[in-house]
Amino acid sequence: MYFDSVEAMDRADLEALQARRLRDTLAIARQSPFYKERLAGFDAESIRTPADITSLPFTTKDDLRSQYPCGMLARPLEDFVRLHASSGTTGTPTAVFYTQKDLETWADLMARSMYACGCRRSDVLQNMSGYGLFTGGLGIHYGSERLGMLTIPAGAGNTRRQIKLIRDFNVTVMHIIPSFALYFAQKVREEGFDTADMPWRIALIGAEPHTEEARRKIEEMMHIKAYNSYGLSEMNGPGVAFECLHQTGMHLWEDAYIAEIINPETGEHVAEGEIGELVMTTLTRKGMPIIRYRTRDLTRFIPGQCACGRTHRRIDRIAGRADDMIILKGVNIYPMQIEQCLMAMPEVGQNYLIELVTEGVSDQMKVKVEIKNEYFVEDMRSLQGLQKRIAKNLCNEILLTPRVELVQHDTIPKAEGKAVRVIDNRNKD
Ligand code: AMP
Ligand code: ZN
After folding, report:
1. Whose CA is nearest to atom 16 of ligand 1?
2. Long-range Cβ pairs for the range 410-414 (8 Å, 24+)
3. Which ligand gives the minimal distance to the CA of 244?
4. Residue 234 burial by CB count (10 A; 0-12/13-18/19+): exposed, middle or buried?
5. Measured in whole angstroms, how far is the alpha carbon of residue 48 from the centre of its chain?
């Protein structure tokens, strides 16, 4: 029923395991130049329960950047066999190093995650995310092999070749970035195939924020079940939290991580079930442990038990990143609020783009929205009506009326990796 019996471990035992692993982790971390200094004077033996973690300091993205390239390593460089880096587009990247043992633990977590949403060794997985420094390539790849699936490292892009591989090798599981999935579904149809006739049954979607509406759209367009997959390079990559067959939030693997949700302003824990910033500590990493990492990702613990019997707590889909928030005319807006609104409208196609501009003395939001072909042939008046309706729905959600521009499908440039949803062209002075 489970890939690993630890998934349904009794909570008291799980917490005892966490405390033990946290003490071990602290001992390893102290071997790194960074934590040697940061944890000086801290008595690891004072950790009796996972809750005692609050006596430790946070680690931020800036800390990791300041230690680039090797300041976080707790072992000599020759003990490492792999390096990945986060996808950050600005500034110094954060490098993450893995020992052989770390890679094995990661592959196990990944295999467990895929098993939880119904993947089995008889399945054929096509990995449609980019390989390279991005962890969605090799991370998913080795997990899939670990589970025993035939694994096709297709990489990103090249829609025709993707379709050919899927049909020729009866691909049943796809790993695909959600923004690309919507685009891909449309392309499959344009190539003359019926998505209902494709061999696939499961899509693993993750790596970028997306709404429940976008997931449903992917499921409908592709005739597939789509499961949310969460991870970040600093915590290995994918395989941190994953949906099970019930699709009611992502089980966060608590034998491998301690997760906390804090108020990003105060650093204090929020009340159970409230939304805040996810903070994570590695419990099984041998080469480069990270303690109380501020992910900037906003989510909440879902109260209660999951019907699947797994005891590891679930987190809700990521509502956005603390640093993604747009402040326009004093109003706080998250791009996911806009996506939610757009994807709920049947006329809206696969892609959208938010642009912030300065006009005269004030800042404005423009939202470009791709419209499905069948609606574009309609007369001008109904298009104008649609434009107004979208603007009104958005205003109900974000309390500002953006300027809506309707465009034909496939006209907004498509990123190969994670989608770019917001372009900020405001005057900064
Ligand atoms: P990277 O380390 O470059 O792979 O980026 C990790 C970041 O991608 C996370 O911190 C999240 O912001 C985002 N991310 C990954 N998986 C998901 C997901 N399932 N839903 C929303 N955002 C995600
Ligand atoms: Zn479950």
Report:
1. 207
2. 410/183, 410/186, 410/351, 410/370, 411/370, 412/351, 412/352, 412/353, 412/368, 412/370, 414/179, 414/180, 414/183, 414/351
3. 2
4. buried
5. 32
Cβ(369) – ligand 1 distance below 6 Å: no
Cα–Cα distance for residue pair 154/161, rounded to 1 Å: 8
Q: Give the confidence band of 360 by pLDDT, cuts at 50, 70, 90.
A: confident
Whats the size of the chain, residue-wise? 429
Residue range 123-143: average pLDDT? 96
Percent of the chain with pLDDT over 70: 98
Say if CB 139 and CB 239 are below 8 A apart: yes
Looking up tokens 């946070």, which residue turns up?
Answer: 58
Q: Which residues contact 413 (CB under 8 A, 6 or more apart)?
A: none
Q: Whose structure tokens read 């069948």?
A: 374
CB-ligand 1 contact for 86 (6 Å cutoff): yes
The token pair that represents 387 in the structure block: 């434009």
Q: How far is the CA of 176 from the centre of ligand 2 (A)?
A: 22
Ligand 1 pocket check for 207: Cβ under 6 Å: yes
Q: Is 297 in the pocket of ligand 1 (CB under 6 A)?
A: yes
By CB neighbour count within 10 A (0-12 exposed, 13-18 middle, 19+ buried), where does 270 fall? middle
The rounded mean pLDDT for the chain is 94
